[in-house]
Amino acid sequence: MPRPLVATIDIAALRHNLSVARNCAPGSRVWAVVKANAYGHGLERSMRSFADADGLALIEVDGAASLRQLGWQKRILLLEGFFDATDLQTIVENQLDTVVHSVEQLEMLEQAGLDTRLDVHLKINSGMNRLGFMPPACRAAYQRLRAIPAVRDISFITHFANAEDASNARLPLDEQVQRFHAATQDLPGERCLSNSAADLLHPECVADWVRPGVMLYGGTPAETTAAAFGLQAAMTLNSEIIGIQHIVAGDAVGYGSSFVADRPMTVGVVACGYADGYPRHAPTGTPVVVDGIRTQLIGRVSMDMITVDLTPIAGAHVGSKVILWGKGLPIDEVANAAGTVGYELMCAIAPRVRIVELESNQQD
Ligand SMILES: Cc1ncc(COP(=O)(O)O)c(C=O)c1O
């Protein structure tokens, strides 16, 4: 019998969330971001679920080639472009769109002498200082790209540092928007700025394309809950109680004996640990749902197990159903308690976790 730990992926929720992203930007086309194995949800599965997207965007060149083999016929955008000449070959063979974010990539493209045409997205560093050309270098980069016979359309792309915190004192959102528009002013080509947070919160940033990621999976990058935006959890991590201990005041639980009971308690052992992707740093108090009742993690997260307080759950038994996150327990709430973000939890789901696909919005 397999371990009772299962990640259920709700296809209808993925589809629904894409429609939310589209409704937030009705005049725009949508790149559905599927990097990192579609934020842990599975590339092929997400490709099927996002059939209505205008394109898929990711950073893995081999993943992009797989999408073509799997039958995706619309556009595919490589968000970090290419890493070497072999990648350029893959781009050409699979008709991929590519970002060009550096002088080195520009030179590679100039020297490649490609005989097939490709669409390029010039990345502007509008203040995040990660990838992209500084605004004063944008025009020269554009002219060099324009001079490459293999380059067909040139679009412009930038990425926000603080779309979920638009008035950030170090780099307000409107500052990035202004820098982007100033750098690309009068240059012909489509524009794409918005990630999930901008799509959800800042219609003023929406341009020809939007690039939502986490919201498609039912996570929120903002303070507001995902549910308040009408998003549905796409991944639910379920398990069961596999052991129960009755302890008295003064007894400790787990590695390091970090949790000490101050009263008689019932401790449930759940089949799920950090080797499954549950965050090891989740502290005592992190929410967990058992038999539909909220309780909390106690003690340290082990490789294969966590321990939870069953004291408030009358009738809890070996086999009781546990929700670690997803429908019934927002992933962002668990992430928050663990000092991280929902993105990390989704992406960290380990290969050993069984995946079950759910077609409808219903789940028991
Ligand atoms: C370049 C780029 N665009 C879009 C996204 C999607 O962002 P989010 O998942 O916050 O919507 C990401 C994710 O990090 C990204 O790196």
Report on the architecture of this protein.
- This protein has 364 residues and is an alpha/beta fold.
- It has 2 domains: 11-219, TIM Barrel (Alpha-Beta Barrel); 235-358, Lyase, Ornithine Decarboxylase, Chain A, domain 1.
- It is built from 11 helices and 18 strands.
- It is elongated and about 75 Å long.
- The structure holds pyridoxal-5'-phosphate.
- The site of pyridoxal-5'-phosphate (PLP) has 12 residues, from helix 9.
CATH-defined superfamily of the largest domain = Alanine racemase
> In total, how many beta strands?
18
The unreliable regions are: none
Radius of gyration: 23 Å
SSE arrangement, N to C: EHEHHEHEHEHEHEHEHEEEEEEEEEHHE
Bound molecules: pyridoxal-5'-phosphate
Could you tell me the CATH topology label of the largest domain: TIM Barrel
Largest sheet strand order: 2-3-4-5-6-7-8-9
What is the architecture of the largest domain at the second tier of CATH? Alpha-Beta Barrel
Number of helices: 11
Strand content: 15-25%
Biggest sheet record:
8 strands, parallel, barrel
Distance between the termini: 20 Å
